TrEMBL record:
This is Arginase family enzyme. PROSITE patterns: ARGINASE_2. Keywords: Hydrolase, Metal-binding. One of its GO terms (molecular function) is metal ion binding. The keyword Hydrolase applies. Signal peptide: none annotated. GO terms for biological process: putrescine biosynthetic process from arginine, via agmatine. InterPro entries: Ureohydrolase, Ureohydrolase_dom_sf.
Length: 376
């Protein structure tokens, strides 16, 4: 079946003028520049970024479809597009299935097809367990991948049967499994059972407390640079910055989350972003929708910069630093264009790193990032 045929069957159209209350968009606003699925699926093959809406929130125990994607689009379309050379298509909303597993299957089909065509996918709305459907798109491609979640919690709760509270276990143990590595950014320790963190550490997964990520956001960039998919739960952002988040008064600020989204957009490897857990009925003046729209705007801004760094193998684009630490000699590279760092492992692979990793090596210390990569 041709891609457009099953896209027509699985995706519901969008009325951009209903979203903007029949007001015309300025020619430089995203609403005027995005190709939108209105009467038929647009030609998305030339698009760099593809938007997909999601309405299923049964994973959190809500039976009614979510209108999250409508309100996010309303705010996103009103933002100005600073890089019109970046082509964006909005393919509409995935229809929720009879069972939530049917929604996962639809996501697997749509995401898998878009990945096969090399598209960067942004998914909006729905409950956080839809991350599993996002992951299944990579399973459809039989693609070994790395995933990063930004979340105040680890969704492996034993005291709940809701998929939004338990889906990480499926991500970790489902067969066949294509999860090579997992990063978790922004967990809030007082909500996390200590033994759970110990278990994830034994698996050599990298987990970062919200306080650490706030103090050293540059340390999050290498993890995002190595990730294939990113999933964000809005509970990671403090309530004052996203009024629809009733979970915690603490967390990332809106600006900090925009920076993380920019880092994600800059990753030449990352191919999908999902932003989940938005409940517009709890929002105030659509401030949360505006926050999400601005996160996507910064993600697009990061995408503009992702082509600035060639692969590490193209040495002429980098400054080279040969360092010997604890009887190990390795090579650090720093991009002449963006200033980002890479370090070489004994098997000659390069992995993203930070300037601090280089300084540690210069002090004859083993960078933890280097050590953990070796242990994996």
């Amino acid at each position: 079946m041709a891609a457009d045929t099953f896209f027509e069957q699985l995706l519901m159209p969008v009325d951009r003028y209903q979203i903007n209350e029949d007001e015309a968009y300025h020619e430089l606003q995203l609403g005027a520049q995005i190709q939108v699925h209105e009467k038929s699926v647009p030609d998305w093959t030339a698009a760099d970024i593809v938007l997909i809406g999601l309405q299923d929130q049964r994973g959190e125990g809500f039976s009614q479809p979510s209108e999250a994607s409508f309100y996010i689009r309303r705010q996103l379309y009103r933002l100005f597009h600073w890089h019109p050379e970046i082509k964006i298509a909005d393919l509409g909303d995935i229809q929720s299935g009879r069972q939530i597993s049917d929604t996962y299957a639809a996501m697997k089909t749509v995401v898998g097809e878009l990945l096969a065509h090399g598209k960067l996918i942004v998914m909006l709305g729905g409950s956080h367990d839809l991350t599993y459907g996002q992951y299944l798109g990579y399973v459809a491609r039989e693609q070994l991948m790395e995933a990063t979640l930004i979340d105040a919690l680890f969704d492996i709760r034993e005291d709940s049967t809701l998929p939004a509270d338990t889906f990480l276990m499926d991500l970790f143990v489902s067969q066949p499994n294509f999860l090579k590595h997992y990063n978790h950014i922004g967990f809030q320790s007082y909500y996390v059972q200590p033994h759970m963190l110990e278990t994830l550490d034994k698996l050599r997964f990298d987990c970062y407390r919200v306080g650490y990520a706030q103090e050293r956001p540059e340390d999050m960039e290498p993890a995002l640079r190595m990730s294939d998919m990113l999933s964000i739960d809005l509970n990671a952002i403090r309530h004052s910055d996203v009024p629809a988040n009733w979970f915690s008064p603490n967390g990332f600020t809106g600006q900090e989350m925009c920076l993380l989204c920019k880092y994600a957009g800059m990753s030449a490897r990352l191919s999908s972003l999902g932003i989940y857990g938005y409940h517009p009925e709890r929002d105030q003046h659509e401030l949360t929708a505006k926050q999400i729209a601005q996160m996507i705007w910064y993600f697009i801004e990061g995408f503009y910069w992702r082509s600035m760094d060639p692969p590490p193998e193209e040495k002429q684009a980098y400054w080279e630093f040969h360092v010997r630490f604890t009887d190990v000699e390795t090579l650090f590279l720093r991009s002449k264009r963006t200033g980002r760092w890479w370090m070489q492992l004994p098997d000659q692979r390069f992995i993203p790193c930070t300037a601090e990793d280089y300084y540690q090596a210069c002090r004859n210390e083993i960078p933890e990032r280097w050590l953990r990569a070796q242990e994996r």
